[in-house]
Specification:
Layout lengths: L42 H12 L4 H21 L7 H12 L1
Length: 99
């Protein structure tokens, strides 16, 4: 059965590097949603939305995400990826990031 017919399901086992997902710790048993930034054509838009959403409370994280998006956007343009975002929209977005 392919991913397109499964919906949301547990595909990954996540362990935090700071130890906080260990039994009894703050993040023991937390739910996570993983994005494949290399292959998932929807990850770019999801990351954009997250960067916007966290900007006021976590400005350093938002800045890091915007830089990641800038690099991803350049790669997408070089690869001619336009299945989710048109070339024009990616270009406009990148121009906004670059000023």
């Amino acid at each position: 059965m392919g991913d397109k017919t499964r919906g949301l399901y547990g595909k990954f086992d996540i362990k935090r590097t700071d130890g906080k997902s260990e039994p009894g710790q703050k993040h023991d048993g937390c739910d996570y949603f993983v994005l494949d930034l290399t292959h998932d054509p929807f990850a770019f838009q999801a990351l954009m939305a997250y960067a916007v959403a966290c900007d006021k409370e976590y400005p350093l994280l938002a800045a890091d995400l915007r830089e990641k998006l800038r690099v991803m956007g350049i790669k997408r343009l070089q690869q001619g990826v336009g299945d989710v975002l048109s070339r024009e929209n990616v270009d406009k977005f990148l121009k906004g990031l670059l000023g």
